[in-house]
Amino acid sequence: MPAASADDRRLQDVAESLRGRFGDAVVETFLGKDGLIVRLRPARLREALTFLKENQGFNALQDIIALDNMKRGPAGLGPAGPRFEVLYQLYRFPEGLRLRLSVEAAEGEELDSAQPVYKSADWAEREAYDMFGIRFAGHPDLRRIYLPDDFEGFPLRKDFPLEGTKRGL
Amino acid sequence: MAFKEIELNMGPQHPSTHGVLRLKLRVDNEVVRGVEPVVGYLHRGMEKLWESQTFHQIVPLTDRLDYIASVSNNLAFVLAAEKLAGVEVPKRGQYIRVILTELQRLASHLAWVGFMANDIGAGTVLLYGFEARETILDFFEDYAGGRLTIHALRLGGVPYDLTPENIALIRKVLDGLPAVLKDIGRLLTENRIWKQRTVGVGILNAADAVEYGLTGPVLRASGVNWDVRKRHAYSSYDDFTFEVPLARNGDLYDRYRVRLAEMDQSMSIVRQALDRLPDGEFRAKVPRVFKVQPGEVFHSIEAPKGELGFYIRSNGTDKPERVKMKSPSFINLQSLEKMCVGNLFADVVAILGSLDIVLGEIDK
What is the pLDDT of residues A117-167, one digit of tens each? Predict the structure, then answer.
């Protein structure tokens, strides 16, 4: 499909300018099944988001996806590393280019909040905090979004039992 | 007389919040100064549950998210899982999926226009909208046995073929809809009260709409031409000709007009799919133990409420490692404060209605 390859070229350009700007902080870039995937070191997260928004036209942050890699599956998705992984799903409207920025965070490590860059990050980061306990530095109001404030534990962590805990609900 | 700003609580049990949603409002007389939505009353821990279920078992669970449009939820999930596993759905199955999801979009929009008008005080439209939606639900019942949580799709295709009787019923439903839409249009489009309540209210300009991550009819009413069916066509949507209705002002009236125009397009798509329904299989052979090689994928569709997506990470077993749902209502609701501040208190209900949220999808 010619349209798809034009997309791929444009995404390659984005990958290139990211590597040019952030050098070693970019761990790897590759085209996945659904757009460009960029793995980045968390130290320059806020800077990279700002660059992507203001310089590369990625004007919308559509979702933040957190993962707990504590138990990497039998086949494994890479070497053991920091426990959490946070993915930022970015769009360039109206062309519809998609990019997924991926950073890793160790237990207790804070990530820079994306909220000052993208307003839509507000609730998404609260959700990641609520479910995984990942903290975002610079978020204006980081508290639980779904669960009650006095809930103990973070349910989407792999070590949280499926049937819940006595101290939870 | 000077008033102090006061805090008002709306919900969680409130007839116009379409579910259990609480709004913490700050008002100065009749003018809204701040809105803070409080969600989570319907949180069932779906994403945790999915990690313990097989891919086949997750499909019916997705019905419980946006229960006004359950087929769309099914479609987003099965497409993501199929993309990850490399399953090719037969052409006939893809067309039947298009027919089912477009009928679902019609049903969802009909329910929306009814709820929205009812919120503003035009109760009659609710009855018209629901009567027409009923005919679509009757078809779903005929086809798959369910009306609300239908479980109409399976991994690899659809569970049943469309019989000639099914097709005749769809055509009958489609023949009946234009008259209803005309009636709804006659009741609302040029209605002075309706226009007073909707024109120029809850405006969101294109730049803000993108900044807040909005999708779907609300984004298109602000003039941004973004429809996943066009840009990242899935399930053979590129076989059909249809337009993406747009508006410019981004107010409640435009959201109404965009949704009304979308219904015409949906009817046209269903007719095209019925006319050109290919022969052959309607479901690919998918093993009972559906193991997916390790990997990750994000796939989204144009659901009635906006862009609905699933991110799946698999670990090589028949159960996913992690499923994250990108729910359009969750993202759209976030912009409520932006739209409400400066408007009148009475408009909050109307603006909330115009977003077309479903709490099942927000709370997961």
Answer: 888 899 999 999 999 999 999 888 889 999 888 888 888 888 888 887 776
Residue A145 lies in a domain: no
| Tally of structural domains, chain A | 1
CB B284 within 8 A of CB B87: yes
Range with lowest mean pLDDT among A5-14, B31-40, B198-207: A5-14
Q: Look at residue A74 and give its three-state secondary structure.
A: coil
Q: Do A147 and B43 touch (CB under 8 A)?
A: yes
Query: How far is B123 from B114, CA to CA, in rounded Å?
Result: 8
Q: Could A63 and B313 be called an inter-chain contact, meaning their C-beta atoms sit closer than 8 Å?
A: no
* pTM reported for the whole predicted model: 0.89
Tell me chain B's radius of gyration from C-alpha atoms: 21
Q: What is the DSSP letter of B135?
A: H
**Tokens, residue B256:** 């109404």
Residues A59, B257: Cα–Cα separation, whole Å: 26
A157 occurs within a structural domain: no
CATH number of the domain within which A9 lies: 3.30.460.80
Rg (CA), chain A: 17
Residues B55 and A132: their CA atoms lie apart, in Å, by 23
Residue in A62, A46, A118, A50 with CA at minimum distance from that of residue B211: A118
With an 8 Å Cβ cutoff, are B316 and A74 in contact?
yes
Handedness of CA A46, A51, A54, A60 (dihedral sign): negative
Is A77's pLDDT higher than 80? no
With CA atoms as reference, the chain B residue closest to A160 would be: B48
Whether A4 contacts chain B with CB within 8 A: no
Nearest CA to B299 among B107, B103, B152, B87? Answer: B87
First and final CA of chain B: distance in angstroms?
A: 45
Could you give the domains of chain B? 43-363 (1.10.645.10)
A62 vs B83: CB contact, 8 Å cut-off? no
